[in-house]
Write a structure and sequence with these properties.
CATH architecture: Sandwich
CATH superfamily: Jelly Rolls
Structural class: alpha+beta
Strand order of the largest sheet: 1-9-6-11-4-3-2
Number of domains: 1
Order of helices and strands: EHEHEHEEHHEEEEEE
Bound molecules: fe (ii) ion
Shape: globular
Amino acid sequence: MSSLRRISNIQLKNETFNVVDKILENPYEFGASKRIHIGDTAVAVESEKINERTKKMREVGYSSADYFIEFNNNMLSNVQKDLENKYDLSYTHSCVIIIPPGQCMPTHSDTYSYLVKYMKRDFGDVSYDLKQDVRRYLVFLKDWQSGQSIGAEDNVKCSWNSGDVYEWDYKSLHWCSNSGLSPIVFFEITGLNLN
Ligand SMILES: [Fe+2]
């Protein structure tokens, strides 16, 4: 089985496309954060793993010009609800990511550190297994354009449609590259499937 899979397509509503168009026009007006891969050296990072990662990124040549754009403000709660219902997810969090032309999401594996943190803090009585119970799904919010790709291990995909849902193997190294002329935009949800 491929380590990166298109598993379904959800019907995105017109209001979702309208939000996407608006945030692309001026992301920072809608609460976006610019996330520089080497980190903001003015901000202390708690996680040792993240410190190690940003150090490595600097060593191999990433600079403060290399970034992605992230929204953590639940602006697409209808997409979140659709995915929660479709995949029987609870304790979810989600974000919207923009990869501008000429940018990428460097190869990494997921740690689910945010989920682990709030589960421990707010739902300490809920037991779950990171490998068995955690789910993360990516939904493209714009159709694929030439020059864009997503990969996990040795599987690379392109030609997606908006609404396509992808998943990848636990701990697999994955990435996203935009050599195109339009931004890549996707929604990502993380949660538990406990049933
Ligand atoms: Fe990831």
